[in-house]
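Title: Prediction job returns without error message
Component: structure pipeline
Severity: low
Priority: P3
Assignee: unassigned

Description:
Job completed but the reporter wants confirmation the result is attached to the right record. Sequence as submitted:
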Amino acid sequence: MTLPRSAADVLARHVLFEIESIDRMYLNVYQPRLQHARAVAGFIRHHLGFPAVSSAVLAPISEAFVTAIKTFARQKQVPIVDFVKGQRKDDVMHEYLAQFDRQEGVLFIGRAQEKTGVFRTEKRRGADGTPYPWIVRATAMVNHWYFYCLDEDFGPLFLKFSSYFPYTAKLCINGNEYAKRQAAKAGIAFTALDNGFAACEDPAAVQAICDRLSAEKIDALLRKWLALLPHPFTLADQDTGYRYDISILQAEFSLTQMLNRPVDGRIFFEQVIRDNLDLGRPDQVSLIFDRRIITKGRYATPGRFRTRVITDGVTPSLHIDYKNTRIKQYHKLGRALRTETTINDTRDFRLGRRLHNLPALRRIGFTANRRLLRVQTLSHDPANGATAIRATCHPVTTNTGTRVAGLRLTDPRAHALLTTLCQFRLQPAGFTNHDLRHHLAPLLGYTPDQITTSQASYDLRRLRTHDLIIRIRGTHRYQVTDAGLHHALFLTRLHDRFLRTGLAELSDPDPPTPSPLRTATRAYQTALDDLAQRAALAA
């Protein structure tokens, strides 16, 4: 019995190069000193100097901020776009990016209404019954302003501000875009693959660039754009400590493995899915994330443990969950295997959300990607099977440019040739052109004299070119290779005993007894027709 091998071991034979990188990061840009009602009341009383605590006194700040945004757009000739419901904001960004002719700047400013946390005034009463206003947390649908920018070092990004106090913002960056920008600056030749690398002159140098993307560089990026864009807080506010800080809302860590035979990548990945549908079990998830999983009792680990296969069109992707963390694996654009760990809550791993936790979070994400490939097992290397099918059944072009036809499985002559190989293996002294004609003719319904020597020579050439036979040195005799015997035995039995039998059962209009295959097929078709009728989809 063949023991399964890890996907990492099998994959190592087919990877040209691989890049580990922070992918998308969604960061919370917030005011640490304005996170609760008492702090906002202190801002109003002590910093702004208003005796009454009311959110009404904050309205002029909001109005001034919105006015500053519109003035900035007018002076810099930056278009303002109102997003509509269901519109993909990234699609709009790519449209403007395609027309942008500078190394750096604001592409456009987007506006959208979204729900967010705000502070509102609530009427309260003192011990003596006297009413007074107080600040409380609430949620509301408010305008958000998206600044879509192109940065010289980080590439495309956006910074989104709420138009209500305390003007919380979100920063979205892409580590692969950062790597591409830095590789271009370093003079490293590469071909882009969406937000990755399809080809690369120096993968080690690019990996070093990805490794250098640090919390300090991300913080410096934010400070740079806060200084360039309209700011809701004045310099006086910032000097007294009301400065933005960064926390991690979502971080993606990707491993992109470029394959030497891109078409085989889909075959490989589909086999991975078939062999690993149990990855969502707690014991497997525990291995992937190196965490203890408690399945029962008061302290049971929260969250669902599951494996999902989601198909977009004809492209499948594998999804594994642990608490709020997801791993997604898919065949990227038909050329690479992509494994992504997305951490949506750093506390799943007992880490804080502040940006300085990025190094520890990076280790967790990249380790999870690697552990997944080690936990995944494969019963065989499907790329080898694809190679064998091509070697036998597909045409071959020789070094001189001559095209030699393949042995197509359903072609009667090719099938007859494979059948004769099974017989010729029993002839230690080999076989000749004459032997081939005499064995091949009955299988095709001919007499030996109806197959010419030149026709047999053409068939011998096909078999030799596909490495199914070899010529015995110094003679005109041939021997069947080990691969020739193995492929001939398997393909002839597949044709005669599986395809022919199965199709006969399915196509027989009046079988004496219904076969299990025909019964199952009709039941499945009936169920589909019934579902279509109930869903009112049938014509």
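Comment from assignee: result matches the submitted record. Residues 32-167 form one domain.
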